[in-house]
Amino acid sequence: MKATLCLRAYRDAECVGQVDLPMSEATVDLVGSTLQVGCSSHEIEPGLTEHRVTLTCLVAGDTEVAIGYRVNFPGLQTGHVAMPAAVYAGNKFRSKRYAYSCIVCDPEDFRADLPNTISNVHRLPKAQLLAGDLAMPAVGVGDFAAGQGVWLMAEPGTWARQPVLEAVEDEAGLSVGVFFPGVREGECYRGCGYEWVPSEDRGWRPVQGESIGLRVVVATFPSSSPHDLYRRLFELRHQVWPAGGRHELPWSASFDLIEAKFNALHWDEADGYYACGDRQTRYAHWQVGWVGGGISSYALNAAGRPESQARGERTLDFMCGKGLSPSGFFWSFCVDGQVYSDMIDMDYGHDWHLVRRSGDALYFACKQVANAGRQETRWVEGVRRCAEAFRVLWEREGQFGQFVSQETGEIRVGATTSGAIAPAGLALASELLRDKRYLEVAQASALSMVERFLDLGYTSGGPGEAAQCPDSESAFGLLESLVTLYEVTGDRSWVSLAERAAWLCASWVMPYDFVFPPESTFGRLDMRTTGSVWANSQNKHSAPGICTLSGVSLFKLYRATGDIRYLDLLRHIAHGVTQYLSRDDRPVFGAPAGYMCERVNTSDWEHPDTPVGEGFPFGCWCETSALLTFAEVPGLYVQPDTRLAVMLDHGDATWHGDDLVVTNGTAFLMRLRVFIEPSSALSQPLGQDFLRGSCVVEVPAHGSVMCPL
Predict the structure, then answer these.
(1) Is residue 624 classed as helix, strand or coil in its secondary structure?
(2) How confident is the model at residue 463 (pLDDT cuts 50, 70, 90)?
(3) Average pLDDT in the 526-541 region?
(4) Quick one: three-class SS letters along 23-80?
């Protein structure tokens, strides 16, 4: 491993000259420009060093330039290369060009043993991404044969001038680097049908006497597996990128707005279910799992008004009746009383079902039954049929695949972690049904996904329209499963595996506030990106929350480990969600109150149709994530004996002697759900309805109250 400085000259977005330099001051002639390079280094702590590089123009030429810091790995061809939310294991998977909706569509690929197949996204041998294309501006390498790892971490810059992070593999080996200003050479990604277009990036046009600078923090550490790589990034996230965020809308106020929208627009009285959208298009009717069907109804049943609770139960009735397909898995769609598979508008795959959908539905159905406090026969039978479908599939195939047949349950496209949350559902089903067979399948399948995917540094297959690209949705689903298995079995070996999943999950979460164009919608609304979550490596935007979970597994993981960083990660995710909700007093993208768009565009992947900082006035799955946040996550967590008080909701909690004062600085009434426990209780699993009966404190707008302890 060898570090160097690097100067590049550009005409438009083509590199026309390059000079590598040692880590020292120098004067360099580069394609007509004379440039003075200055550098300094500072050891922050052992294994963590800050490098600052300046570039001053002495004589200006007619090209643009960029200054870079590179680390070379001569001869390395098999290292694990990571760029958060974009590149995992170098994305060195089988790749095909798919038009949106980017689903495996070639008949020769309709098989259970399909090698992981991704769409035409960034991947080695050359990947260049701007800071805004990533969850955080970092590029890492695990040279496991040599037992070493490295992360290069840069300042994100602003929307107008960002660094580029790159990884390049050739016959000489591997190099990773950070360059400023960022130039994606030749082409840049547009994705989801747009594919790749000529890059419009430009370097710095030197002007005599002017300077630019680059700051890079470099971490070096022992590393023998991808877990070491992602663990170190998790540890350093907020040491390198300070967290942001601000108070905007309490969770309870957000819940009330979305609940009103769901009861006005989402409720289908004829079939008796909460649709995933406002029912204005086919895709906004019933979709089970993934984008909200059977998940939002659980949240509304758990924390909503009496009308919502009743409708939540009717939704469960629908799921466990008409919503079940012949295979025992749930039907993917229902529109105007007619059920459909996932390929509702496709000319192939008429019986395909995204297996993740039924994993979600099984998990939340079990949670809703537990929350109801009673076991209706139709609910229990519906859970049994789905759990049995997963059991039969596992025993026949040794995997859950990605798409299965709605008719027979056979795998149509396989070999992903699409069903990563299914072990959580099976573990809860084993308790509900008192059948150990489902727990045995839950444990075996979870371990298999750890060994076949998580141990290799990625998960895939969670989204139904991102081919088999690495994704956060299945990573968070696997985390939920591993934590649930710990809670059900009491076996702490699941905790260490859950930590590994959490480190990977954290790589998909933005730890800082991106600087949007001031004239953009997000710029004008002062949106803060800390805690927003990228869904997958194909769709280049972050989003409000996890698709489609609250992140409560991170709270449970904190309790199991005592590591406050898991609670901090949850706090950033959960706190950031509600600011994106459109309100009458603060419309977002011109949408009506209660709508939330998934787009948090820090990347130009949809330029010019949807520029950085823009979206569209549609509602989607993140409304369900907002509902879950209030229903499942404590707004305030308190340990009186240690005087730990962590506010996750939009307020502040401060100790005044032995009193804890809660302040609401927003313009909305806050119904704050408070979870109080002694530190000695951390070793006890919480179960599924731990917030039931918890303290609720009402805090007036711009007011303060004493929290009862």
Answers:
(1) helix
(2) very high
(3) 97
(4) CCCEEEEECCEEEEEEEEEEEEECCEEEEEEEEEEEECCCCEEEEEEEEEEECCCCCE
Angle, in degrees to the nearest 10, between helices 564-576 and 493-506 = 40
Residues 257-287 have pLDDT tens digits of 999 999 999 999 999 999 999 999 999 999 9
DSSP reduced 3-state for 682: helix
Instruction: Give the tokens for residue 644.
Output: 């730990």
At residue 234, does pLDDT exceed 80?
Answer: yes
Q: Three-state SS for 9?
A: strand
The gap from C-alpha 474 to its chain's centroid, in whole angstroms, comes to: 9
Helix (H) or strand (E) holding 481: helix 472-489
Mode of pairing for the β-strands spanning 173-180 and 273-274: unpaired
The two tokens of residue 312 are: 């939540």
pLDDT at 99 (0 to 100): 87
522 vs 519: CA distance, rounded Å? 8
What 3-state class would DSSP assign to 484?
Answer: helix
What is the rounded average pLDDT of the residues 192-210? 92
CB 309 within 8 Å of CB 299: no
Stated pTM of the model: 0.98
Q: Which residues of 65-85 are buried (b: 16+ CB within 10 A; e: fewer)?
A: bbbbbbbbbeebeebbbbbbb
Joined tokens for residue 425: 């559902």
Looking up tokens 């974009």, which residue turns up? 86
pLDDT score, position 689? 85
Over residues 229-234, the mean pLDDT reads: 98
Listed in sequence order, the DSSP H helices in 214-321 are 226-240, 251-261, 296-303, 306-319
pLDDT reported for residue 692: 87
Q: What angle do CA 619, 534, 588 make, to 5 degrees?
A: 35
Please answer whether residues 282 and 257 qualify as being in contact, where contact means their C-beta atoms are separated by less than 8 angstroms: no
Q: Which helix (H) or strand (E) holds 334?
A: strand 333-335
Q: Is pLDDT above 80 for 193? A: no
Q: Phi and psi dihedrals of 644, rounded to 5? A: -85, 125
Asked if residues 468 and 541 have their Cβ atoms less than 8 Å apart, the reply is: no
| Cβ proximity of 346 and 288 under 8 Å | no
What's the 3-state SS for 141-184? EEECCCCEEEEEEECCCCCCCCCEEEEEEECCEEEEEEEECCCC
| CA distances to 165, 464, 482, 563, 684 from 577, in Å | 28, 23, 24, 23, 29
Structure tokens at 122: 């960034």
Query: Which strand (E) or helix (H) includes residue 557?
Result: helix 552-561
- CA 396, distance to chain mean position in Å, is 31
Q: Which amino acid is at 543?
A: A
Tell me if 439 sits within 8 A of 505, measured CB to CB.
Answer: no
Task: Note the pLDDT tens digit of each residue in 35-84.
Answer: 999 999 999 999 999 999 999 999 999 999 999 999 999 988 778 999 99
Written as six digits, the tokens of 137 are: 């501006």
Beta-sheet strands, E only, within 548-642: 636-639
Tokens 């079995």 — which residue?
Answer: 489
Distances (CA, A) of 457 to 117, 436, 485, 493, 551: 16, 31, 21, 19, 20
Q: Are strands 117-118 and 94-95 parallel, antiparallel or unpaired?
A: parallel
Residue 450, H or E segment: helix 436-452
